[in-house]
Structures are given as structure tokens and as C-alpha cells.
Amino acid sequence: MSIHDLLTIGSGLAAVIVMILLVRHGTRLTGHLARRGKAQTMLAVRASLAIDGRRRLSLVECDGHRLLLLSGGANDVMLGWLPAEAPPPPRNPSS
């Protein structure tokens, strides 16, 4: 191999590395911009508990309401909606 071939290979490798880094930086930048204007998540898994090797109990929040889901068995079951959390009782100041 001549020095010309080695320089061509080296510059090609450097160009590919620079392109990878630019794409990586660009996706981070666009990801941050996209998240800025996003509304709050309406559906979220708040907690999950493994019952056994196949079944899982999940607490899911949907638009401010919470429900329990049992999944992984022969079929998935919605166990029901949970009541809204009551606000904490007011504290009486000690006199």
C-alpha cells in the first residue's frame, strides 16, 4: 500500500466518524426541541408488581384516573378503577 492509499482510507474513516457525531448531536438537539412543547403524558404505568413467572399486576394512570390491570395469564383482566386520592386532613395548630 502506498501512502496515498493510507491517506485516503484515513480521511474516509475520519469523515464517517465526524458524520456519526454530527447525527448524534442533531438527534439530541431535535429530541430536546420536540419535548419542549409536549403536553403532559395522559397514559402512564405508575407501578408494576410481578405476581409469579407469568402474571403481573400494574397500576396504570389514564388522564388522572388510576386503574389496576392483571396481565400475563390466559387473558388480561382490568380489576377496576381506584378511588381518587383524598386530600390530606387539615392540621390543627397546637394552641
From TrEMBL:
The keyword Transmembrane helix applies. Coiled coil: none annotated. It is found in: Cell membrane. Its main location: membrane. InterPro entries: Flagellar_biosynth_FliO (IPR022781). The keyword Transport does not apply. Pfam families: FliO. One of its GO terms (biological process) is bacterial-type flagellum organization. Keywords: Cell membrane, Cell projection, Cilium, Flagellum, Membrane, Transmembrane, Transmembrane helix. The chain crosses the membrane at residues 6-23. One of its GO terms (cellular component) is membrane. This is Flagellar biosynthetic protein FliO. It comes from Lichenicoccus roseus.
